[in-house]
Amino acid sequence: MSLIVKGIRGSIRIHEVPGDENAVKKRVWVHGTQCPPPVIVRPDWTLDLHKTNNRLKKMETAKMASFTGKMILVEEKGSTVLTMDQIPVAKLFSRFNGRQMSLSIYKLNTQAGKELIGKYEGSADVFYFEGGQQFYAGTKYVNDFYIDDEDIIEKLESLLDEDVRLTVNEE
Fold first, then answer.
1. Domain-by-domain residue ranges, the chain?
2. Residues lower than pLDDT 70 in the chain
3. CA 93, CA 77: separation in Å to the nearest integer?
4. Tens of pLDDT, residues 32-59
5. Contacts (Cβ under 8 Å, ≥6 apart) of 159
6. Which among 111, 128, 152, 158 counts the fewest CB atoms within 10 Å?
7. Is the peptide bond before 37 cis (omega within 30 degrees of 0)?
8. How many Cβ atoms are within 10 Å of 37's Cβ, its own excluded?
9. What is the DSSP annotation of 54-106?
10. Is 157 helix (H, G, I), strand (E, B) or coil?
């Protein structure tokens, strides 16, 4: 099924959850990532993604994606993973693996607006794995993201506990 989700165009998987007939609550996945609730599907099939506080704000088009949220380092047994509002950063960018892109990193400030921290261009190498292993207790993560030789995860770790906007333009 192909729908428009506040400017997002792409394949979207929808699972209906019982609710009001005029505004049905749904669980929605965009490009394999579940959108945080609540997601309301109106009769015209336009999805309205209302997210607050520490939920991922995401807007995608065919050649551009923008992600806004707080950078948090999550530590589990034997693994640390950089997340943007509870979603691993490499998972957000996994669809850009092997593609030419430019990434702009902005630090958001309520008084000063957005401040450009860095802009990186080149071929994206994204490595993401989440799961268990036979002789390993806990969840195992691989969360790496490079643009050419620049380690983007390392750059983003300097912005821990900050509100950040990541804007990608695919070339």
1. 2-49, 57-170
2. 1-63, 76-78, 132-141
3. 24
4. 555 555 444 433 333 444 432 233 333 3
5. 71, 105, 107, 117
6. 111
7. no
8. 15
9. TS-EEEE-SSEEEEEEEEEEEEETTEEEEEETTEEHHHHHGGGTTSEEEEEEE
10. helix
